[in-house]
Amino acid sequence: MEYYSTDGHDSKVSLREAVMRSLAPDGGVYMPCSIPLIPSALFKNMDEMSACDIAYVMCTQLFGTDIEPSLINSIVRSTLNFPIPLVDMGDNRYALELYHGPTESFKDVSARFLAQLCKYFTAQNPKDRKLNVLLASTGDTGNAVTDAFKGIDTVNVFVLYPHKGVLKERLGNSTKKSGNIIPIIVNSDFDHCRELIRQAFTDTTLNRRFALTSANSVNIGRLLPQTFYYFYAYGQLTAKLGHRISGFTVSTPCGNLGNLTAAIFARAMGLPINRFIATGTSDNGLWGEITGNTLQLSDYHAKALTSNIGRINRLMELDPSLPGKIECHTYGSDEIAETIRKRFKSDSYLMDRNTAMACRALDSVSTSAEYPGLFLATASPRKYYSKLSRILGYETEEPEHVHETAPHHLPHLTTLPPTLAALTKLIEKYN
Are residues 149 and 296 in the same domain? Predict the structure, then answer.
């Protein structure tokens, strides 16, 4: 299958180039030239299929001849080797728990898949330059990506953490410098980390010298695997209800809109999602407004390297009914805390802040046995013990894996000023 840039239709590239470049030269993100429909036979048997089996069928449709079937099978089974349970929350509402992987984040699915793609593509020509993954993180993304790419000697991973704003309980092992993993503390805030990444990807000289790619959802190799769990959720829904459903609602917390975009892709591939709810904080927002079939960037997303909004706009061009099916709900800290306390008191179900937003939004809409709803539980609440204990009004037991210090207190880490020259010099050192 070929891929085109959201900022221009003319130039088409292979899956290999789309994954290893992440961004198109014109600054757009890659889209598949065609979106395959999943065979109807899959839906008939989905309630009896494992996540691996479903993902394998989807991969054969998505990637065609780009990857050998035997390798697809190997990648899928090494990626989805942990449970993804669908928890009944009552009133035809369900929680899809995506945090049972090695770093307790939904990003384990897509980061592990992307890592195996990069390993495969870089191994095809050992004489090629090393691939350099650049990302900014405050915890979860860095943890998932470093765990996924650890030990792949054809790929360097540079993770930029801000000096301030990192929750120690979200780090896991991501700040351990090892082999191809290079954690970095930038002497500034997260916005400057993101700006530094943006400068690197838009610097033509730097990109001629080194092979650079991204590991967040702007990379098509990380985004498409996020469609897997929506299909698996559908299979679990039909198994629990005992019948095929006509449609369902998806409510997801959003950062760079990756999970929302993946859900829309899943619909384009044949999954009967008839309502999309994107949730975020009141401070950041998600997008400006929908004008016709176009989403406008919020100020928060305008600071990012690039956004999935370009993909959503392309998908709305393909399906003009989409704007009427997408909702945006934002919540303040007090509303989020209220939801966490309420759900814990009623069901003893503990959730992190992002999951709570998705749960609260789904609670605000109607569901039925014919049209149920699910929200994504994107991170283990164990990772947020300190904040959750304060919200609930008591001290929870601290998880064993939590670091004692935040990354800017760890003396072994490389510290950089927030300049492209400093980052370039570090990339040179490892290439």
Answer: no
